[in-house]
Every structure is written in structure tokens, then in C-alpha cells.
Amino acid sequence: MTIVAKKATRRNDDIGEETRLRLYRLQQEIRQLEKRAYDLFLQNLIKGTSHLAIGQEAIAAGFAAAMKPDDWTFCTYRGHAHTLARGASMTGVLGELMGRDCGLLRGKGGSMHLTDVEHGAMGSYAIIGAHLPIAMGAAWSAAYRQSGQVATCFFGDGTTNIGAFHEALSMAATWKL
Length: 177
Fold this sequence. Notes:
By secondary structure, the protein is mainly alpha-helical. The protein has a single domain (about 15-175), classed as Thiamin diphosphate (ThDP)-binding fold, Pyr/PP domains (Rossmann fold, 3-Layer(aba) Sandwich). It has 6 helices and 3 strands. Strands 2-1-3 form a 3-stranded parallel beta sheet.
């Protein structure tokens, strides 16, 4: 497999002021969500644990801006920001974290299993690397159906030491996904 890095040619000037403001506001909304989740966790209103993405808001905002409504997103257990950025409501995300009926999964999934299929957030997965083959399968499905959909998968560096990482990349390369 050969990986070629291309020099970025896009500059900030190419993005209109309206888009920059929209992305900035989304980053602020994500930061508010994560801070609120942290406060609720400290008050023991979020059961279990909660993995935050404070300081990484631009990643979620930027990727979501490039996604189409029918594209798919797969996350690790650190998926609050990505789920919100894809269009889930703050009430739905916080409700899910707190185990409430108003949550995205009616409070059954919690922090590490956020899912909002309506907005393309196909789940955050608690098991490191478990979502990679699923995302690869979604990408294969899109290619097979020639739908033009994109499957985006987020993971941390520790995931690269998991067999599923190598298996999913190998299959994606074989099928040219």
C-alpha cells in the first residue's frame, strides 16, 4: 500500500465568513456540551464513565461540515462531539448520558453508545477498534450500491494495535474503498 501526502492548497480565505461563523458556533456548542457533561458527571448524574473531547471541537465541526446528510459516522467511546456535530440535539445527547427517556436511545446506551441514525451517527463503540470493520462494511455497502455515501470512522492511536484495525484497512485497500 502506498500513501501519498498531498500539499494542502485550501486557505482560510476560500471559506466564507458565514461558514467560518457557523463552524465557530458549532465548536462553542460542542464545548458547552462537554463542559455540561463533565459537571453532570461530577454530580454523579451520569452513570458509569464519560470520555470527553474538550480541546478537539474543531475536528468534529470540520468533518461534519464536509459530510452529506446520508453519510455515516462511526466513533469510539469519545463520540459526544461527533454525534452533536452531525445534528443530534444537545437535549438528546445529554439525556442519553443521564439515562433519561429523552435521550437518543431513550437512556439505554449512555455515554459510550451514542447513536442517532437519523443524523448519520451510527454509534460510538466502547470496545476499542470494534467499529472499524462495521465502518468498512458500511463503506463497502455504499460502493456496492454506488450511492456516493461516505463512511467516516474516528479512533485513537491505541486502536492501531488492534487486529480489527489491520483487518479493516486490508479489506478496504483490497476493495479500493
